[in-house]
Amino acid sequence: MSTTFGSLAVRNYRLWFACALISNVGTWMQRIAQDWLVLTELTDNDAQAVGITIGLQFAPMLLLLPWTGMVADRFDRRKVLYVTQSVSLAVGVALAIVTLAGVVNLALVYSLAFALGLASAFDSPARLAFIGELVPNDRLANAVSLNSASFNSARLIGPGIAGLLIAVVGLGWVFVLNAFSFLAVLIAIAAIRTKDLVPVERAPGVSGTLWEALRYVRGRPDIVLVLVLIFIWGTFGMNFPIFISSMTRITFDLGPEAFGILSSILAIGTVSGALLSAHRESPRIGVIAWAASGATLALILGGLAPDPWVFGLSLALSGIAAITIMTTANSYVQVATAPAMRGRVMALYLALFAGGTPIGAPLMGFIAQVGGPRAAMLAAAGTTLVLVVIAVIYLIRTASLRISWVPERRWPLRFTGRAADRPLAEAEIALTETEDEKT
């Protein structure tokens, strides 16, 4: 099988990939329907209310950080996922019932978004760390990238279906279909062959696990850098539901069908970016810097777009850049982290990535409400530029990055340096430390 799809040769991962795709389609359908419900049915085009809803959904990842990573490392991840997916199914059913019954209100949506966030806070680190049990370590980076491709393929399919269903049968039935989609993951969990899982070392206790993760990360400046970059991007750059819904409704005065189509266009870029990431053998910090540069330009183009067509083009470019940032950072941290610490470190990663959303989403929603959707996108572009600067400074200092202009070359701008921006395995870290001591 090709390098890009190598992990699909593993039966357990292939099963997980297929069922997760079905579930993710439902998740994206719900996200689109929920945002549209808040923006058009429960408020008068209030982008800040959309931001608050998104913030409440991601707040538990930060609030529960001391426990979520411990659960992912201490307990059987299959059983953890069975519980979290069952709770998510129950929340989806509740949202469908109140919407179809006509009793839904903003307070109920806020409460259910927070409840879903509670389940996701435990689900996400366990799910990401579980990939390391499905495939051998030499295929982990590829599996993480394909997992992102699955998630973003769903982002391509789900919004388009949601936009069509909202217009034809209404919001409530979109929530019903999402509730049923959780069954796919439950089926995958039941069908996985436990004897084929990669053995992992479990954390020996339940106390001090967050501090252990922080101590571990503190000794890895490369991981610290990636966590800082992903926090900035997750807080300010990854607010596309706000950008797309407010630009669609407020700037271009279009309906749910256009909202679904534009969300799917974003997904075209994310799927392309995920497949490109899957083809790379090793995640590198330099790739994050390049992707952040592209994201800055794409967000500026979107903020200045004169019509939906140009805006759609900017979303496709944003999708490629966004998924490259996320997939590279995710793969880097997973590959660079010892298996016994992976759940706790990934919980820290997710808390920083999604934990900033309760700050960034309401802020971007406020900017969109007061200054307009274009101002919000341009503000996000400014923050991604900061991300680029931080990454380049790191590479100049640690990877001996040199930037030169060679006019006679076809591409005159040249970057040179050693490969210090790739994740080091545990053995390599020990060897490097020994060499440093000798020096």
Automatic annotation (TrEMBL):
Single GO MF annotation: transmembrane transporter activity
**Cross-referenced SUPFAM superfamilies, in alphabetical order?**
MFS general substrate transporter
Q: Which domain of life is it from?
A: Bacteria
* Example of a GO cellular component annotation carried by this entry: plasma membrane
Q: Where is the Major facilitator superfamily (MFS) profile domain?
A: 4-399
The alphabetized UniProt keywords are: Cell membrane, Membrane, Transmembrane, Transmembrane helix, Transport
User: Where located?
Assistant: Cell membrane
- TM ranges are 12-29, 49-68, 80-113, 161-192, 223-246, 258-278, 285-305, 311-333, 345-369, 375-396
Q: Describe its membrane topology.
A: Multi-pass membrane protein
**Gene3D superfamilies assigned to the protein according to its UniProt record, in alphabetical order:** MFS general substrate transporter like domains
* PANTHER family reported for this sequence: INTEGRAL MEMBRANE EFFLUX PROTEIN-RELATED (PTHR23513), STAPHYLOFERRIN A TRANSPORTER (PTHR23513:SF11)
Query: What is this protein identified as?
Result: Predicted arabinose efflux permease, MFS family
Native source organism of the sequence: Microbacterium pygmaeum
